[in-house]
């Protein structure tokens, strides 16, 4: 029995030896992580120094990380300096810090690479450093916005112009000598600017950009601004997306009111009614506008209608139909006197009032947008109309009417 016990122990130890011999030992290796991985020190006057930037080296591996060297290489290493204790031995899940300072020796953009030598994979690791040397008497360029998304715009239509403001936050005249557009979709954007711009210290100047897409998709371009300040040329990324909507009806009233039907209700008094104006623009849109305007003859009027042509929506049973216009209501009287106006849809069975006059219309150039239900009663044909009832010295102006369908 004793011999049997000894035999079992020997067999167990033999099996344990064989098992341990077959198991591969777990490899322990260091792994480096550095934060930040790049840095722009911004504008620093020549002959002065930036605030030191702290870099953190972390060991996210499973063995001690050894840092044997940190140095500056690249284009302008002499414009940067390091404050670090070398060597560094960093235990697992620990970290150490060091700092870098930017002290430009010349005007303009300066750059270097921070190189760290260590005992983990990928050594040496490199990180980009940059900054710009300036003079206290130089102009300094600033622009807002620094990027712009023009949103959804239909093919053939144009966005509202977006204003970009160039400011001189320096101490001498900023000369802007060129603005241009580059990128794969530069042709879908256009700008309006007076070049050259000579902007005194503390002043600014504007230019505008408009998005007019010619094909479907998301469009990208870059605005390039050439100037005499550090960092030239400055760039602005711009984007816009094509709205897949199909235009069913539109009128900007640049010719006349020939498509529309004028009508006056039974309560009509006086001769004022909707009319075409070839000049003036109270709506904020482009071109001419139509207006129910009792100022023309200083009389009250009631139930004035302007009715669109019939619209056939047989093919548009799904999706969204949207009606938009630019307009405003101007109340020059001291009291509203019961004046009101609105926009409604008629499909032969039912009147759908989209909105009656609200204070939100009492502003030049307000843009209104509505979703229209045109199949509720089974009739694919419908029209829409603006109406107005008012007293003397009242206006209700309309421009840029667009009816569109979005799948």
The profile of the biggest β sheet is: 6 strands, antiparallel
Low-confidence stretches: 265-272, 294-301, 332-336
Provide the CATH architecture of the largest domain. Sandwich
Portion in beta strands: over 45%
| CATH third-level topology of the largest domain | Jelly Rolls
Helix content class: under 10%
Tally of distinct domains? 3
Average of per-residue pLDDT values = 81
Radius of gyration: 36 Å
CATH class of the largest domain reads Mainly Beta
Q: Secondary-structure blueprint of this entry?
A:
Blueprint: H1 2-22, E1 32-35, E2 38-45, E3 53-59, E4 65-73, E5 80-83, E6 88-90, E7 95-102, E8 108-118, E9 125-134, E10 141-144, E11 147-154, E12 162-168, E13 174-182, E14 189-192, E15 197-199, E16 204-211, E17 218-227, E18 234-243, E19 246-251, E20 261-264, E21 274-277, E22 289-293, E23 301-307, E24 311-312, E25 320-331, E26 340-346, E27 351-356, E28 366-372, E29 381-390, E30 394-406
Parallel strand pairs: 2-9, 11-18
Antiparallel strand pairs: 1-3, 3-7, 4-6, 4-8, 5-7, 8-9, 10-12, 12-16, 13-15, 13-17, 14-16, 17-18, 19-30, 20-23, 21-22, 22-30, 23-29, 24-29, 25-28, 25-30, 26-27, 26-29
Structure overview:
- By secondary structure, the protein is mostly beta strands.
- It has one helix at 2-22, and strands at 32-35, 38-45, 53-59, 65-73, 80-83, 88-90, 95-102, 108-118, 125-134, 141-144, 147-154, 162-168, 174-182, 189-192, 197-199, 204-211, 218-227, 234-243, 246-251, 261-264, 274-277, 289-293, 301-307, 311-312, 320-331, 340-346, 351-356, 366-372, 381-390, 394-406.
């Amino acid at each position: 029995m004793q011999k049997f016990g000894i035999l079992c122990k020997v067999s167990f130890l033999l099996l344990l030896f064989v098992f341990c011999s077959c198991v591969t030992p777990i490899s322990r290796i260091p792994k480096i992580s550095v934060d930040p991985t790049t840095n722009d020190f911004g504008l620093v006057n020549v002959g002065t120094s930036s605030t030191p930037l702290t870099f953190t080296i972390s060991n996210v591996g499973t063995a001690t990380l050894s840092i044997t060297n940190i140095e500056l290489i690249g284009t302008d290493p002499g414009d940067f300096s390091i404050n670090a204790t070398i060597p560094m031995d960093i235990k697992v899940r620990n970290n150490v810090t060091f700092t870098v300072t930017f002290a430009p020796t010349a005007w303009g953009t300066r750059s270097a690479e921070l190189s760290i030598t260590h005992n983990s994979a990928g050594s040496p690791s490199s990180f980009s450093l940059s900054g710009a040397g300036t003079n206290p008497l130089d102009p300094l360029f600033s622009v807002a916005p620094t990027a712009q998304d023009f949103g959804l715009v239909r093919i053939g239509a144009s966005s509202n112009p977006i204003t970009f403001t160039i400011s001189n936050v320096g101490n001498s005249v900023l000369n802007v000598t060129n603005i241009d557009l580059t990128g794969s979709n530069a042709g879908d954007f256009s700008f309006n600017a007076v070049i050259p711009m000579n902007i005194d210290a503390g002043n600014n100047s504007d230019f505008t950009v408009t998005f007019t897409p010619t094909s479907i998709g998301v469009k990208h371009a870059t605005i390039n601004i050439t100037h005499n300040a550090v960092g030239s040329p400055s760039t602005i990324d711009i984007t816009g997306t094509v709205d897949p909507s199909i235009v069913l009806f539109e009128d900007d009233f640049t010719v006349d009111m020939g498509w529309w039907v004028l009508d006056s209700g039974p309560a009509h008094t006086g001769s004022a009614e909707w009319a075409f104006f070839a000049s003036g623009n109270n709506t904020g849109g482009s071109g001419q506008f139509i207006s129910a305007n009792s100022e023309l003859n200083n009389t009250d009027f009631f139930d004035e209608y302007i009715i669109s042509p019939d619209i056939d929506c047989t093919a548009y049973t799904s999706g969204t139909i949207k009606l938009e216009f630019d307009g405003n209501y101007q109340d020059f009287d001291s009291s509203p006197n019961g004046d009101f106006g609105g926009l409604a849809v008629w499909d032969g069975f039912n009147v759908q009032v989209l909105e009656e006059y609200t204070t939100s219309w009492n502003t030049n150039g307000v843009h209104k947008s509505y979703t229209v239900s045109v199949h509720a009663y089974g009739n694919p044909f419908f029209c829409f109309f603006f109406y107005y009832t008012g007293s003397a010295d009242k206006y209700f102006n309309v421009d840029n009417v667009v009816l569109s369908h979005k799948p």
